[in-house]
């Protein structure tokens, strides 16, 4: 791939995803991280994006909060429909873990009104949203704050969840690759997800159909390790059959209008 083709791809992806990760780009495009950083510097000089530590965000969304909001707005109808299906799993007197990510954030916005719900989360925007919600006790999972992703990271001991066992973990991901492995763009974020899975009786993955078949540099875990995948009706029959063959329950949410 020529330099101008590589840079055009970067501009397209940063505007679609709201974030680029240097190590992920280097692995996918088969070039060094030095080359990627040079490309990002070139694009920043031309006003096409803004560089951050370890990557870049869109030029008109130079802080992580704006980038998060952009990602949350993408395919918001599908994400909200997935969130509404996920909310059906929640009961009173439960302990749940809500992972970071925009689809899980949509779930936080539609939590059912149930009593005595304990919520653990590494996600800063999600914890802030749930503060003061009646019937919900929020526990912020500790660790180092990763500003690019607005969440805490670290191992289970650092994050203070060694003694936590949740009824349900609602998990997000950057994608599911052709090997049926969940993928992420950041090794530190992948480590958090691996830790969280060990502390839940049931794992529910929230992933819209656009994430099926994506590539990524960091594998998190096989999708066969989760109990349920909730997605939208854009999932292909082939992907759905392959997930079912692993023994994973597949719930297909009916997509609602993004203006609803």
Automatic annotation (TrEMBL):
One of its GO terms (molecular function) is DNA-binding transcription factor activity. SMART domains: DeoRC (SM01134), HTH_DEOR (SM00420). InterPro entries: Carb_Metab_HTH_regulators, DeoR-like_C, DeoR_HTH, NagB/RpiA_transferase-like, Tscrpt_reg_HTH_DeoR_CS, WH-like_DNA-bd_sf, WH_DNA-bd_sf. Residues 3-58 form the HTH deoR-type domain. The keyword Transcription applies. It comes from the Bacteria. Keywords: DNA-binding, Transcription, Transcription regulation. Gene3D superfamilies: 3.40.50.1360, Winged helix-like DNA-binding domain superfamily/Winged helix DNA-binding domain. This is DeoR/GlpR transcriptional regulator. It comes from Phycicoccus endophyticus.
């Amino acid at each position: 791939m020529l330099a101008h083709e590589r840079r055009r791809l970067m501009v397209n992806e940063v505007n679609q995803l709201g974030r680029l990760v240097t190590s992920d780009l280097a692995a996918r495009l088969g070039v060094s991280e030095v080359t990627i950083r040079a490309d990002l510097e070139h694009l920043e000089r031309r006003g096409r994006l803004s560089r951050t530590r370890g990557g870049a965000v869109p030029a008109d969304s130079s802080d992580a909060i704006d980038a998060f909001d952009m990602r949350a707005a993408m395919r918001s109808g599908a994400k909200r429909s997935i969130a509404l299906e996920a909310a059906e799993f929640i009961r009173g007197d439960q302990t749940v873990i809500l992972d970071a990510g925009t689809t899980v954030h949509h779930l936080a916005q539609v939590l059912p009104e149930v009593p005595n719900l304990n919520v653990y989360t590494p996600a800063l925007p999600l914890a802030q949203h749930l503060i003061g919600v009646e019937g919900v006790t929020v526990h912020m999972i500790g660790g180092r704050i990763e500003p690019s992703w607005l969440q805490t990271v670290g191992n289970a001991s650092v994050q203070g969840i060694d003694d936590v066992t949740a009824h349900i973990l609602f998990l997000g991901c950057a994608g599911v690759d052709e090997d049926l492995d969940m993928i992420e763009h950041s090794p530190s974020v992948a480590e958090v997800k691996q830790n969280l899975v060990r502390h839940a009786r049931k794992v529910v993955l929230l992933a819209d159909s656009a994430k099926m078949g994506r590539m990524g540099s960091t594998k998190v875990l096989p999708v066969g390790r989760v109990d349920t995948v909730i997605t939208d009706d854009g999932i292909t029959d082939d992907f759905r059959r392959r997930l079912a063959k692993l023994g994973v329950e597949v719930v297909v949410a009916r997509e609602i209008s993004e203006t609803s």
